[in-house]
Design goal:
BirA Bifunctional Protein, domain 2, elongated, eight-stranded mixed β-sheet, three-stranded antiparallel β-sheet, 2 domains, about 425 residues, RNA-binding, 18 strands, alpha+beta
RNA sequence: GGAGCAGUCGCCUAGUCCGGCCGAGGGCGCGUGAUUGGAAAUCACGUAAACCGCAAGGUUUCGGAGGUUCGAAUCCUCUCUGCUCCGCCA
């Protein structure tokens, strides 16, 4: 059943039967090699004894030389098998939880709730790229000059709006939702990328820096989650909540022709991320509160949005359950993703080796990890420019941001 | 970027020159017990993780990866990280 659910996803055939065969073969080899090593270890204890008693160990030494060669040969085969197993395993996606809507793609997603009403305009509204360009707070042409397509330059109150949103979001999550603010590196190594599931499958989606074999972070999820890799936490520490602002860098390789204008799909955008490490038994509740924390940003900005649960076909590679928060975007005439909140169960914890020990003691167990955007800042700017635009081309600053912006209105005058 | 030094069991550290008695000693911390009216102090014992196995047990790990050897914490090579000095630099 589970297998059927997994294979119904768009990730297609990842060869689970193969994995099983490789695994069995590997275990067989491992047992064999370990038996030989046990023999070798025993003999290694005999040799010094014989020598000490003045005996002749040469016969045993010769025997051990042969054994050593055999071990080397068999071990090599076992290692090859192990790396084949690991490669195969790294390409197996997470399993959707029971209750996740089953379907081929986003058309099977389930609307969970809708908050606020899309605004009715009594004038001809503009798309955010026009609002921003006309106010001289966004500049896509000059961005293209210095970088290329799919980049934006923010200017004046446009730059300040981006900064205001970052501060507003971080203040909300640290002050009211109990998250600890982190400012991580914006480049990470291969290991970190593998820990959260971006590698090995999605290397082509990311910017790579060959000089040091680093990757520009596609999301703060990567540095934040891997912050605790290979650690064993105390149960009392859980849940750990981290939030961070980072720019995010994405190649958008497969999206040629889509969302070509504006701030919706760019190579570099700012995002405030929420990450949680939780007990296995509470992770789904924690997903609800994490999603609520992200929604709170939109509520305070008074932007209309809805929450949808992704179907099995739309679910990301590493996730077991995901809520997307979508904000109303007048120029698109529909809701557009502004946050994605996922429960990864122990999928990332296994890859990144993040464990906890229960207070009573016992063996370390894997934590559950979750994350969500809280929120994508560029898209929030787009939503504000569109939803808060006035007939004269100015933009009213949302109440919640006025302290950060130092003004109530963005206008040309 | 150049030169030098260093990375050991939660933390600090012994061991590395002279390979086997070291999966590894000591201290701190922590746990259990003794002592105590209770505590402190003291004493005793215990105190890493992963994998294979029903179990008994076995295997692996002394930053990481290779190599030499019957055998590597210890010798060799590469690499990563930290510190000091020099160069450069916000």
């Amino acid at each position: 059943m589970v297998y059927a659910a997994v294979t119904s996803r768009t990730h297609g055939d990842f060869g689970l039967p193969d994995v099983k065969a490789i695994d069995e073969e590997y275990r067989k080899l491992l047992t064999e090699v370990e038996g030989l090593k046990a023999k070798q270890n025993a003999a290694s204890k005999e040799i010094p004894k014989i020598k000490k008693e003045g005996g002749d160990a040469s016969a045993l030494l010769a025997e051990m030389k042969a054994l050593s060669d055999e071990i080397t040969a068999k071990n090599e085969i076992a290692k090859e098998q192990e790396s084949r197993l690991k490669d195969a395993l790294l390409n197996v996606p997470n399993t959707p939880q029971d209750g996740v809507p089953v379907g081929e793609d986003e058309t099977a997603n389930l609307e969970i709730r809708k908050v606020g009403e899309p605004r009715e305009f009594d004038f001809e509204f503009k798309a955010h790229w026009d609002v921003g360009t006309d106010l001289d707070i966004l500049d896509f042409e000059r961005a293209a000059k210095i970088a290329g397509a799919r980049f934006a330059v923010n200017k004046g109150l446009g730059a300040r709006l981006e900064r205001a949103l970052v501060s507003f979001m971080l203040d909300l999550h640290t002050g009211e939702h109990g998250y600890t603010e982190i400012l991580p590196p914006f480049m990470v190594n291969r290991e970190a990328m593998t820990g959260t599931g971006q590698l090995p499958k999605f290397e082509d989606d990311m910017f790579h820096l060959p000089a040091k074999d680093f990757f520009l972070v596609p999301t703060a999820e990567v540095p934040l989650t891997n912050l605790l890799s290979s650690e064993i936490l105390d149960e009392t520490q859980l849940p750990v909540r981290y939030t961070a602002y980072t720019p995010c860098f994405r190649k958008e390789a497969g999206s040629a022709g889509r969302d070509t204008r504006g701030l919706i799909r760019v190579h570099q955008f700012n995002k405030v991320e929420l990450v949680k490490f939780t007990l296995p038994e509470t992770s789904n509740d924690e997903l609800e509160s994490l999603t609520a924390a992200a929604e709170e940003v939109l509520k305070r900005l008074e932007l209309p949005y809805r929450v949808v649960e992704l179907s099995t076909g739309d679910l990301g590679f590493s996730s077991s359950k995901t809520y997307d928060i979508e904000v109303w975007m007048p120029s698109y005439g529909r809701y557009v993703e502004i946050s994605s909140c996922s429960n990864f169960l122990d999928f990332q914890a296994r890859r990144a080796n993040i464990k906890f020990r229960r207070t009573g003691g016992g063996k370390p167990e894997f934590v559950h990890t979750l994350n969500g955007s809280g929120l994508a800042v560029g898209r929030t700017v787009a939503a504000i420019l569109e939803n808060y635009q006035n007939a004269d081309g100015s933009v009213t600053v949302p109440q919640a941001l006025r302290g950060y912006m130092g003004t109530e209105l963005i206008s040309n005058s």
